[in-house]
Design a protein that fits this description.
Strand 8 and strand 9 form a beta hairpin. The radius of gyration is 30 Å and the shape is elongated. The strands form nine sheets. It has a six-stranded mixed β-sheet with strand order 7-4-6-5-9-8, with no helix packed on it. A six-stranded mixed β-sheet has the order 16-13-17-20-19-18, sandwiched between helices. Strands 22-25-24-26-28 form a five-stranded mixed β-barrel. The protein has seven helices and 30 strands. Helix content is 18%, strand content 30%. It has 405 residues and is an alpha+beta fold. Helix 1 crosses helix 6 (293-311), helix 3 (197-207) runs parallel beside helix 6 and helix 4 packs across helix 5 (252-258). It starts with a helix and ends with a strand. The relative contact order is 0.14. The chain has helices at 5-15, 150-158, 197-207, 222-232, 252-258, 293-311, 361-364; strands spanning 21-25, 38-39, 49-50, 54-57, 65-72, 86-90, 102-105, 110-112, 115-117, 128-129, 140-142, 163-167, 171-177, 181-182, 193-194, 211-218, 237-241, 262-265, 277-281, 284-289, 318-319, 322-326, 330-331, 338-344, 348-351, 368-372, 378-379, 384-389, 395-396, 403-404.
């Protein structure tokens, strides 16, 4: 019996646990996921410093003409104290001298030799960056499960952190089967087709940060498929397509079963994608997707991406949706939840003009899809819909509904 999408995703999140950890230099940390939190070692700034090139002054000296006593440059280590009736020239980033109450920017004073005339009004603490106003020592900077981006690397560098502990990238193994299919670098025979599913899975898995292993193409015999499955069991996740629908003339399902496949589900109430199967052999997850190209690609976005985000250790592992409006009237058959590809232009979503489970072109022209409830027969222009992006990852730390009703 087919389970619903929510049950299928719940099973995936339960089975797909984070990989082991490894230590990498922060320069190699882009798009890696932290497996331990990061706490600030140093306050930032680590001392009160000037935000402007200007003059260090006392507020009570507003409107006066003072003598410049010295100059403080960024990086100077001497401890300097303010002296009555004098001001100090100071550069951006330089340490604030003792007794300084404000910095007056250079463009706001009048300079005549070593005499400096200050403006009539000076605000206390103006243009002074206080110790710890950005980061305070001991505060948590990054949480477990954070996927690192460039500005996170800036944060780590600000603390003098050279290496970080991250989850190992998920290893995804792929193999193809079916005598009617050839890889794109092989010559086609009569009545044969190029295999588009395996390159699609490989490309998307790499985009999601995985190490991808292509073990080859099995022939349509039980022994051959068993051999390719065994060769892939060192991976965290094996993704295949086809061979599990009613009437499929190959041995994929039998081969997995003979090797101890534990099924979490074998059918999902979704169109396209009903024969989607998920489970594990030992510690290796198995995801078998429909054989038709568009069906396989859409179900990868929903189920494959969810498994990979969970294996990656990301705290925001749950797919989430953008609420927008549909750009034009759209009619459809009700009866089963449906995945509808289309284009989101930042304001509205336009469903693909023509799409079928066996097509390749529609998803290349799409950047999102909507999952429509079984009760829906269509939408009027401007109707509210939820869309799930395919060209960037939209995820959250808690589950939300992905269904458009």
């Amino acid at each position: 019996m087919a389970i619903n999408v929510e049950e299928a995703l719940s099973a995936i999140y339960t089975f797909a646990t984070p990989t082991q950890s490894e230590i990498v230099p922060i320069e190699n940390g882009i798009h890696r996921v932290l497996c331990e939190s990061v706490t600030a070692i140093h306050s930032l700034p680590s001392f009160d410093n000037s935000a402007m090139d200007g003059y260090a002054v006392r507020v009570e000296d507003a409107g006066k003409t003072l003598k410049q006593s010295c100059v403080i440059f960024a990086g100077d280590g001497a401890e300097i104290r303010m002296v009555e009736d004098q001001c100090i020239r100071i550069m951006t980033g330089a340490k604030i001298p003792q007794g300084c109450e404000a910095i007056v920017p250079i463009e706001e004073v009048s300079v005549n030799g070593d005499s400096v005339t200050l403006p009539a009004s000076i605000r206390a603490s103006a243009h002074i960056r206080l110790k710890g106003e950005d980061i305070q020592s001991g505060m948590e900077l990054l949480k477990v499960g954070t996927m690192l981006h460039a500005h996170h690397i800036s944060l780590l560098a600000s603390q003098g952190i050279t290496h970080i502990k991250v989850y190992r990238r998920p290893r995804v193994a792929l193999f193809s089967s079916g005598n009617e299919l050839k890889m794109h670098y092989e010559e086609l025979g009569s009545n044969q087709l190029y295999n588009t599913n395996t390159p699609t899975f490989a490309a998307r898995a790499k985009e999601l940060g995985c190490e991808v292993i292509f073990t080859g193409t099995a022939v349509d015999t039980l022994g051959s498929i068993q051999e390719y499955i065994r060769s892939a069991l060192s991976a965290d996740l094996i993704i295949t397509s086809g061979g599990v629908s009613v009437g499929d003339a190959d041995f994929t399902k039998e081969a997995f079963g003979s090797l101890g496949f534990e099924a979490a589900f074998e059918s999902v109430d979704i169109k396209p994608g009903k024969p989607t199967t998920f489970g594990r052999i030992g510690e290796t997850l198995i995801l078998n997707l429909p054989g038709n190209p568009l069906a396989a690609a859409l179900c990868f976005e929903l189920f494959g991406q969810s498994a990979i985000l969970s294996l990656s250790g990301r705290s925001d592992k749950y797919l989430s949706a953008i609420t927008t409006q549909i750009s034009e009237p759209f009619k459809m058959k009700k009866g089963r939840r449906s995945l509808i590809p289309g284009w989101f232009d930042g304001e509205t979503f336009t469903p693909s003009e023509k799409f079928g489970p066996g097509m390749v072109l529609p998803l290349s022209l799409a950047n999102a899809y909507m999952m429509v409830d079984a009760s829906v027969e269509g939408f009027e222009k401007g109707s509210s819909v939820k869309i799930i992006p395919t060209r960037w990852c939209m995820s959250a730390e808690s589950e939300t509904s992905l269904i458009t009703y």
